[in-house]
């Protein structure tokens, strides 16, 4: 069985202080994808970077305390790729890919557009660039599993207050259509949603008010897969019993070895 976890840490050091690794060490995951490290390589403690039983690779932003992604694996990959566009978004530390036999697992952090119009435009540029990259991954003929914070709630079921967010970044028609096109036109699978069709399944909550306590959240963390790996998915859960971040870890189990 292959267990994969994806988690936006909102600062890997902060999540560690809140007990994330104590939980992670107990769940026997083979692969962990982390977004928003908010750290440079030199800032990540040795016991985190070299977690017992795991190898890890990180892609840090040039800007300190910003973005950054990582991937931890019990199995040594055949190949690791850091970055995907060779420019604007690689500078922001948004992509790590590990290749295992015929399966590639990606940890990716999509930009948020909520802070300004300029960042929303950057988000659209990212979506255009990443769409092309997803096509390239599919063309390789490998099974692909893309794990990360996509910063888009796809459908009304994917956020509590959808009516109040129709004009807000993360639920804009163009963003939602981008996800629809990947699933309906390009053959990708939203694996969590295929396993769990129920409502009120969220992975992120605002830190304002009592959003988390009242479960007024958004589902913006995903695992997108090609047909082969999606077919192997067996079960899933979002771990909300402890708060390590403003996001909750998403866990999916596959009947697959790497």
Report on the architecture of this protein.
The chain is built from seven helices and 14 strands. Strand 6 and strand 7 (103-109) form a beta hairpin. The strands form three sheets. A six-stranded mixed beta sheet has the order 3-4-2-1-14-13. The protein has a six-stranded mixed beta sheet with strand order 5-6-7-8-12-9. A two-stranded antiparallel sheet has the order 10-11. The protein has helices at residues 12-17, 20-24, 46-49, 117-139, 173-184, 191-195, 227-231; strands at residues 2-8, 31-35, 55-59, 69-73, 79-82, 95-100, 103-109, 143-149, 189-190, 204-205, 217-218, 221-225, 233-238, 250-254. The termini are close together.
Note the topology.
Layout: E1 2-8, H1 12-17, H2 20-24, E2 31-35, H3 46-49, E3 55-59, E4 69-73, E5 79-82, E6 95-100, E7 103-109, H4 117-139, E8 143-149, H5 173-184, E9 189-190, H6 191-195, E10 204-205, E11 217-218, E12 221-225, H7 227-231, E13 233-238, E14 250-254
Parallel strand pairs: 1-2, 7-8
Antiparallel strand pairs: 1-14, 2-4, 3-4, 5-6, 6-7, 8-12, 9-12, 10-11, 13-14
Keywords:
258 residues; 6-stranded mixed beta sheet; 7 helices
Q: Span between N and C termini?
A: 9 Å
Share of residues in helices: 10-25%
Structure annotation, total helices: 7
> Helix and strand succession?
EHHEHEEEEEHEHEHEEEHEE
**Number of DSSP strand runs:** 14
The portion of residues forming beta strands comes to 25-35%
Given helix and strand content, the structural type is alpha+beta
- Low-confidence segments, ≥5 residues, pLDDT <50? none
Arithmetic mean pLDDT: 97
Radius of gyration: 17 Å
Strand order of the largest sheet: 3-4-2-1-14-13
Main sheet characteristics? 6 strands, mixed
Shape: globular
